[in-house]
Amino acid sequence: MTTSWQAYKVDEKNPGSDVAGETAAVMASASIVFRKTNPHYSHLLLHHAQQLFELGDKYRGKYDESVRVVKGYYPSVSGFKDELLWAALWLYKATDNEAYLSYALDKANEFGGITWSMNEFSWDVKFAGLQIIASMLLVEEKHRKLAFELVLKQYRSKAEYYLCACLNKSNESNVKRTPGGLLYVRQWNNMQYVSNAAFLLTIYSDHLQTLNRRLICDRGELGSEEVRVFAKSQVDYILGENPKATSYLVGYGSRYPQRMHHRGGSIESYGENKGFIRCTQGYDNWFHRKGPNPNVIVGALIGGPNEKDEFSDDRKNFMQTEAYTYNTASLVGVLAKLHGLEDDGVFNSPLTASR
Prior knowledge:
Layout: H1 17-33, H2 39-58, H3 63-66, H4 81-95, H5 98-106, H6 127-136, H7 146-166, E1 176-177, E2 183-184, H8 191-211, E3 215-217, E4 220-222, H9 224-239, H10 263-266, H11 279-287, H12 318-321, H13 325-343
Antiparallel strand pairs: 1-2, 3-4
Helix pairs in contact: 1-2, 1-4, 2-4, 4-5, 4-6, 6-7, 8-9, 8-13
């Protein structure tokens, strides 16, 4: 990729609380992952996470107001308040510093954490995720003091609203489903909502199992196993158990999309063509070709079918064939869980199909 790239930044004069908060959350969570295997790196991540959170909180504003060029691509529809709450909770998990928990509790109402009832979790809208993190803190004895418990239970109410909506057990706003059973939120890259929902449902299923508790919804109760089975059904659909009998995870199974909307997939590799390829050349010479992509982007989860389970394998159909890292990221977590259950003999699924 030889195209010139313009770099932008957020700072005191050009605030971007959403992108600062999201990056702080990423670094704080990663610091937990690397705490034992690479303590120095873990400490470095946490240090910068705290700096970024302080920057985002002190100089508040949406990043697409400071870096206006992104408005046409990735505008922050939900604003920055969800990302600040998201960051505070991850920093609390990484540091056990009660100041971060107090931030998430004190600002729960003002920032929408306990007022927004959600039926999606996405790269932009973090409310459902942070509501689930907050609600799970109720397990620990130290969070049952009155000052904490009241707000955490309100977080839990909103978290379970999201889960019940995904499970079609709400009286108010259930997530739609395709005839084949896939959760359907909107036409552009619907799979992000599917993989994210499957991930959060799986996490909460474990939580319910630990507590020996059932999920209570408007239209009935569900046990941890029922929640997990539904999450698995979404993964099974992704991997090929659907009306098209197509895997939407590129490179997986015997049948998967051949013309995903991806520059690296659709242009010949350097090994095959060592000539200089300008940006427009990629579009002019390869984008409109009818044949399969020369390179298989293994593990890419594309946008997926429409509300009728219909899918067109065409590079120009970017709403369905474009791939996103935030689709695959949450799917990996669910696959890891299902793989463990499969090894324990709990589930049989398409995961075994192409080992």
